[in-house]
Amino acid sequence: MTTEVKENERKLTIARAMAEALSQEMRIDPRVFVMGEDIGALGGVYGNTRGLLEEFGAERVRDTPISETAFVGAAVGAAQDGMRPVVELMFVDFFGVCFDAIYNLMAKNTYFSNGSFRVPMVLMTSTGGGYSDGGQHSQCLYGTFAHLPGMKVVAPSNAYDAKGLMTAALREDNPVVFMYHKGLQGMGWLGTERGATVHVPSDPYEVEIGKAAIAREGSDLTIVSVGIGVHHALRAAEQLEGEGISVEVVDLRSLVPLDREAIRTSVAKTGRLMVVDEDYHSFGMSGEIIATVAEHDPAMLKAPPARVAFPDVPIPFARVMERYCLPDADKIVTAWRTMQLRERT
Amino acid sequence: MTMQPTTAQKLWMYEKMVTSRRFEEAIARIYLEGKQPVFNMANGPIPGEMHLSDGQEPCAVGVCVHLSAEDVVTATHRPHHQAIAKDVDLKRMAAEIFGKQTGLSGGRGGHMHLFDPAVNFACSGIVGQGLGPAVGAALSRKMQGKPGVAVAYIGEGAANQGAFHEALNLASVWKLPVVFVIEDNAWGISVSKMTSTAVPHNHVRADAYAMPGHRVENNDTLAIFAVAGEAIERARAGDGPSLIEIETSRLAGHFMGDAEGYRPNGEKDALVAKDPIPAFRRHILETGEAGEDELLAIEKAASKAVDEAIAFARHSPDPEPADALTGVFIEAKPQGADA
C-alpha cells in the first residue's frame, strides 16, 4: 500500500493533490506554467488547477482559446525553449483535433534531434466514463497514447500517487501524459470513488514514473490495472476473500515506462493473471500486459489469462448500456469464475 | 521609407542564396545516384523523399538576415534554404540528410527533421505544424523577458490548415513576437493555390486575426528584406505578430521524381527565366556595390563550403544500426530550478 500513514492524516482528492503539486512546483520553478481551457478562473473543469490563478496570476496560469492544436503545439515550442509547460486537454477524447502536436512533435522531437532539443512538458487529460457523457467524452485511450513512442504515460488511482506523479512529471525532462480518471477526481457532481481520496503529505515528494505499486497483497490471482480499475479490483478482491481466494492487486500507476518486472514478479507468485482496463479491449493495455507474461514465461500461468475491458464498441450513452460495458467488481468476479473453470479443464 | 539592406547585408544574402542553390544542386545530383535507370526512392546514398528549395531562396535570406542565433525558426518539409539562411551547421546538416552518424541527429531525423539547437532551428515534416511551436517559443521569450523572435515558415497550402488559424489567433490574442512567413510557390504538390484557397492571397487573412498582413510579389529579395525587417522590428518591440506572404517559385518539383505534368505549358520556363539569384546578382553589379571579381569569390567560397559539407557527409560513417533504439527519452535526471 502506498498510503498507510495515519498520524496527521490529511485526506485530499486527486484534484486537490494535483493542484497542490502544481502550486508547490510553480513556487520553486519559474519555468513551470499552466495553460488550457478553463484552467484559470474556473480552476479547471475537474478542479486540478484550483487556486493557481489567484496565487500565480494570469501570466503563468493561462486560459486559452479553444485551439488545442495551437496551444499543445505552443507548449512544445515553449518546452523546447526552456520552459516547463503544463497543458490541459480537457477530455482525452479531444486528442483527435490536436494529435499531430502530441505524437509527431511532443513525442518525437527529442528523438529527431537526438536529444539536442528537450520537450519537458506535462499534458494532463481526463479519462473515463460511467456518467452517461456519451462516446466522445468518456473514453480512456490509455493504449493509444502508450502505443506511440516518446511520451511517458501515468494514470494515478489515488491522491497520494497523483501528487507524487505530478511532481515527478514536472521535474522530468521528457513529455509526460498525465491521465486522470474523472471518477476519481473528487468532484461532487461527477460521483467519486471514495478510495481515491487518501492521505497526502503536505511536503513535496515524487512517485517514480515507471514503478508499479502493490495495492493489495495476495497469493492466488494477480489483477493488474490502472486508475479506477484498481478500485474495482480491490472491491472484487474483498468479495473473493470471503470465498478464501487471495487476490493481489498491481496498480501500474505508469503505463510508459511499464513496470514489467512488477507484473512478472506478482504472476510468478500467484500463477494467475487478470487485467482490468476501462480502455477498449483489443490492441491495448490488456493485451500488452498479458504478452509481458506470455513472452517471458508462459509456464508461470496455471490458467489462461483473463481480461475485463471495455468491449470494442463506441461508448454508449444509455445508462444500462454503458454499465453493461464498463468493468466493475462483479465482472471481475465473474471472470475469475470463468478462469477457474478453464483451469480445471 | 522602406527599409534598405546595407551592402554587407546584400552580400550576405547573395552568399546564402548561392550556397543554398549549390547545396540543392549537389543534393539533386547525389540523390539520383543508385536511382537510375529505375527510380526507387529507397535506393542510393540519399534515400527517402527529397524536397528541394531551388527558387525559394529569397524567402529564406530576406527574413533570416534580420535574425541572429538566439531567434527561433520553425521550418517546413522543404527546409534546406531556411536552414542555410539560419546558419545551421552545413556539414552536420548534409550528414543528417545522408543519414550519417555525424548528422545533426545522428541519422534519426533526415532531411525533413533538421534540428540545430545552436541556432534555434527546428523542422516539422507535417504541413503547418511548426506554427504552434513557433508561437510557444515566442511565448517562452515573452514570459522569461528574454530577447528573440520566432519565425514560422509555411507554404501557401498550410494557410488552409486549422493550425494556421489557431496559431495566428493565439499569437495575436497574446501579442507574441512571432512572424508568420508563407512561401507561396502556388502549388500544393499538384493542386494549385487558385483551386484550393478561397482568397486570392493569404495575407488578407491577417485581418481576421488583427495583425498586419503583407504580400510581396515577384520573389523580390529586396522587398522581402523590407517587409520582413518591419515585421521583425515590430515583434521585437513587443507590438505583436505579423503575417507575410511571399510570391516565390518552386523551380524543382514538389519532390525529386515529380514530373510536374500538372503545370501549364511554359510555366516552368517562365519561372526559370525569373530565377531570383541571377536577378539579385545583376542588381548588385548594377548598383556597383560589388564587382564581378567579388561575386565570383563569393560564389567560389559557397561552392567550396558545399563541397566540403558533402564530402564530410559522404565520408562519415553510417550510424550503428542498434543506436536506433536509443534517444527516445532523455535519460539523465534533469536539473531542478533550485539545483
TrEMBL record, chain A:
InterPro entries, alphabetized: THDP-binding, Transketo_C/PFOR_II, Transketolase-like_Pyr-bd, Transketolase_C
Start and end residues of each Transketolase-like pyrimidine-binding domain: 12-187
Cofactor: thiamine diphosphate
Assigned keywords, A-Z: Oxidoreductase, Thiamine pyrophosphate
Gene Ontology molecular function: oxidoreductase activity
Cross-referenced Gene3D superfamilies: 3.40.50.920, 3.40.50.970
Lineage: Bacteria, Pseudomonadati, Pseudomonadota, Alphaproteobacteria, Sphingomonadales
Pfam families named among the record's database cross-references: Transket_pyr, Transketolase_C
Protein's name according to its UniProt entry: Alpha-ketoacid dehydrogenase subunit beta
Transmembrane regions listed in the UniProt entry: none
TrEMBL record, chain B:
Names of the cofactor(s): thiamine diphosphate
Listed GO MF terms: pyruvate dehydrogenase (acetyl-transferring) activity
GO BP, one annotated term: pyruvate decarboxylation to acetyl-CoA
InterPro entries (UniProt xref): DH_E1, PDH_E1_Alpha_Subunit, THDP-binding
Catalytic activity: N(6)-[(R)-lipoyl]-L-lysyl-[protein] + pyruvate + H(+) = N(6)-[(R)-S(8)-acetyldihydrolipoyl]-L-lysyl-[protein] + CO2
Keyword annotations: Oxidoreductase, Thiamine pyrophosphate
One Pfam short name: E1_dh
Domain Dehydrogenase E1 component: 16-321
Functional description taken from the UniProt entry: The pyruvate dehydrogenase complex catalyzes the overall conversion of pyruvate to acetyl-CoA and CO(2). It contains multiple copies of three enzymatic components: pyruvate dehydrogenase (E1), dihydrolipoamide acetyltransferase (E2) and lipoamide dehydrogenase (E3).
Protein name per Swiss-Prot or TrEMBL: Thiamine pyrophosphate-dependent dehydrogenase E1 component subunit alpha
Source organism of this protein record: Aurantiacibacter zhengii
Organism lineage: Bacteria, Pseudomonadati, Pseudomonadota, Alphaproteobacteria, Sphingomonadales
